[in-house]
Write a structure and sequence with these properties.
Strand content: 15-25%
Strand order of the largest sheet: 2-3-1-7-6-8
Number of helices: 15
Structural class: alpha+beta
Oligomer: single chain
Length: 467
């Protein structure tokens, strides 16, 4: 894995200064070995593309030509330059609906910087020590940053479904037709649309040349991915972590048997192992770019990344309405959603969001706490208009958009991870399904039935069969 950073400046001198600053980044703020290298410079000297880690392909003189265009994920992923022979002065960047592959933007006098790592952008903009208290407020409450906040003032996470064009030291932004906080505008969709999008998301893995290693549990989401992989004709090996009699292992084994795929069980280490808490805290902050609380189980960078392609059920909550599903459970009575007035429904949703976002705000000094509370104000009218939809949007914009991005980056340091449930087409198709159908779990069940009817009656681990 490597990280990407691009500079666009009004002058070639300004670009050169920021490029040299980026090349001199302190290795202690980067979770993989460096050094940085210039992969491309524009002919006029006012733009440059750099990368850190990953070895080979460029040099400090910028003689190497990079792969170009949005499909050049092997070099730039979400940040790239114009096609050879055409536009060779503009840098482009983009985010997905969920922005699990993040882009961070920093603006300085006469120049702009984009990177897929916030700390590298902050270093280059000389803002690594200019800390934003709103980030701490969020880490102490939901445990991850909200909106565009990063640990550094002046370094912002670009919103979902956004395209950037960097030219001559300025950045032009445009939002996609289907933005991160609105359902797909193409009209109502159904389980078949979601199933087809999921199969299309994994279909390219047929050409990977090796089986995909799927983390399979007894829950709702990894079985969807397993069924989609089999439906698409992708070779797959299922792996489950646990003891032989654990419900996850028992149910996963039955899923694998019905799908006709290999199933491997990994037994946990013996209890009593000592943990170096301080080392884990430092590793978490470093690996996750400061975007998660220090108690998240994101592991550490391994000396060498695993060669196998891996996949899992990350992102399945998006099919079920995110925090709207939580509110739906709280409003349940005897297994069925209680008949509540719209006013009570809104009040309960508002209380859920308040508890999630401000539960530890009393630990923060008054001024930062007030600024943080003000940053949440735009969600109030949305809660009043459509409380369940607001909770669904909040989950996508913040939990999926910020927590999952940091967790994904941590995973990618040690494995080649595929997350098909975060695919734009899957997310947009699911969000076009009526929210009540998603919150009830009916959409997930119907998508599974479309992909593999043989799995329809396999129970969830630790839960009694329906009825």
């Amino acid at each position: 894995m490597f990280f990407t950073l691009a500079v666009s400046a009004a002058t070639s001198k300004g670009c050169a200064a920021l490029t040299e600053r980026a090349l001199a980044a302190d290795p202690s703020v980067m979770p993989v070995p460096g050094p940085a290298e210039v992969a491309w410079r524009s002919p006029d000297g006012r733009a440059a593309l750099l990368r850190w880690g990953g070895g080979g392909g460029g040099d400090r003189a910028g003689r190497a030509e990079p792969e170009c265009g949005p499909a050049a994920a092997s070099l730039a992923g979400t940040i790239w330059v114009g096609e050879p022979g055409r536009d060779r002065v503009t840098v482009y960047a983009r985010t997905s609906v969920t922005r699990v592959d993040p882009v961070y933007l920093a603006e300085v006098p006469g120049a702009v910087i984009v990177a897929d790592r916030a700390s590298w952008a902050a270093w280059t903009a000389s803002r690594l020590d200019d800390l934003d208290p709103l980030h701490l407020c969020a880490l102490l409450s939901p445990g991850f940053p909200l909106g565009s906040v990063t640990p550094f003032r002046g370094v912002a996470a670009v919103a979902g479904s956004t395209a950037l064009e960097l030219r001559c030291g300025s950045a032009a932004q445009s939002r996609g037709a289907a933005t991160a906080a609105s359902p797909d505008a193409s009209g109502p969709r159904g389980p078949r649309d979601v199933a087809e999008a999921l199969v299309a998301a994994v279909a390219p893995l047929r050409n990977a040349g090796e089986p995909v290693e799927l983390s399979l549990t007894g829950g709702k989401d990894s079985r969807l991915v397993a069924a989609a992989l089999v439906k698409a004709g992708v070779p797959v090996v299922a792996r489950t972590h646990g003891f032989d009699d654990h419900p996850d292992v028992v149910v996963a084994a039955e899923i694998a048997r019905r799908l006709g795929i290999e199933h491997v069980v990994r037994t946990p280490a013996a209890p009593g192992e000592r943990v170096d808490v301080l080392a884990r805290i430092r590793a978490t902050v470093l690996v996750a770019d400061g975007m998660l609380s220090a108690f998240e189980n994101v592991g550490r960078p391994d000396p060498a990344a695993a060669p196998a392609l891996t996949a899992g059920g990350h992102g399945g909550e998006l099919l079920r309405g995110g925090y709207a599903e939580t509110a739906g459970r709280r409003g349940a009575a005897g297994g069925l959603r209680g008949a509540l007035s719209p006013a009570r429904d809104a009040a309960r949703s508002a209380e859920l969001l308040r508890r999630l976002t401000t539960r530890h705000l009393g630990l923060i000094r008054r001024a930062p706490a007030a600024a943080y509370a003000a940053s949440l104000a735009p969600w109030t009218p949305r809660l009043a208009r459509s409380p369940m939809r607001a909770l669904d949007d909040f989950y996508l914009v913040n939990r999926a958009g910020r927590w999952s991005a940091a967790a994904r980056q941590a995973y990618l340091l040690r494995e080649r991870l595929i997350q098909p449930l975060f695919d734009d087409h899957v997310v947009l198709a699911a969000r076009a399904v009526p929210l009540a159908e998603r919150v009830s779990g009916a959409l997930s069940a119907a998508v599974l039935a479309e992909l593999s009817p043989a799995l329809a009656d396999v129970p969830l681990a630790g839960k009694p069969p329906a009825g």
